[in-house]
Amino acid sequence: MNDKRLYHQVADQIKQLIQDGAYPPGSRLPGERELAEQFQVSRVTVREAEIALQALGYLGIKTGSGVYVMEPGTNTHTSVPDVSAFELTEARSLFESEAAALAARVIDDETLEHLQGLIETMSSDNPADEEASQRADQEFHLAIAAASGNAAVQYTIENLWKMRTGLPAIRDVHSAICASEDGKDRRSEHEEVLTALRNRDATGAREAMRAHFTRLLGSMIDITEEMALQELRSKASASRQRYLNGTALNQRD
Asked: Residues of 163-175 as b/e, b for ≥16 C-beta within 10 angstroms?
């Protein structure tokens, strides 16, 4: 097994064991340590594989209790998706922009007030409120999907969000973006969407949501570039420590 796609391979193996009946519905999976030894990987890789399978409906993770196999029929996909944060964000932009346009025509006042409250929650700059802010961000987008009145669009967006929150590589990129932005950025973009919805402006809602994702993609490019540079610097530092420092010691000897 190799590099950052390792958890995908472990997830596929666990899924196969579930389908073969080794872990029947309702049963509890072995602990992380035991699975790590079984698959010859780290416990972190096992945890990421379990999170991915939870996002796909194969597993249910109960804090303090363990990881359990879900009943058949709850699976929303047949395989672990191998998508990048860019691909997922592009797909979200396509569907969520149209969902906003649909919602603008039929959204009710109660939902509009709910969206305003979510914006207030996600606008906080207090680090202690970051988890609540991210939950409010997710609920804002899902509420608009529900308000679209199109069950197929809503279903698709909900599953895109499952990948957004469940796949570790994508979740890490978004966490880095959230750490680099402030509440004012989040508020202004989401308020533009809400204003268009209040005005029952389908075109404006579509454009505001699309602008939000365009900005997000730009931030994603900046963050992934910085992450790649940090990894390169780390590797260069390790090489310098190993080769150049070692050479200097040999010369002194």
From this structure: bbebbbbbbebbe
In this predicted model, what pLDDT tens digit does every residue of 16-64 receive, in sequence order? 999 888 999 999 999 999 999 999 998 888 887 887 787 777 888 876 7
CATH of the structural domain 85-230, one choice from 3.40.50.300, 1.20.120.530, 3.40.640.10, 2.60.40.10? 1.20.120.530
The pLDDT value recorded for residue 39 is 93
CA distance 108 to 24: 44
Q: Which residue has the tokens 């993609």?
A: 217
Cβ pair 85, 170 in contact under 8 A: yes
CA angle 19–21–25, rounded 5-degree value: 85
* Cα–Cα nearest to 150, from 88, 96, 197, 200: 96
Helix (H, G, I), strand (E, B) or coil at 66: strand
**pTM: predicted TM-score of the whole model, two decimal places:** 0.64
Number of other CB atoms surrounding residue 11 within 10 Å: 26
In the chain, where the domains are located: 6-69, 85-230
Structure tokens at 17: 């064991």
In this structure, which topology does domain 6-69 adopt according to CATH? Answer: Arc Repressor Mutant, subunit A (1.10.10)
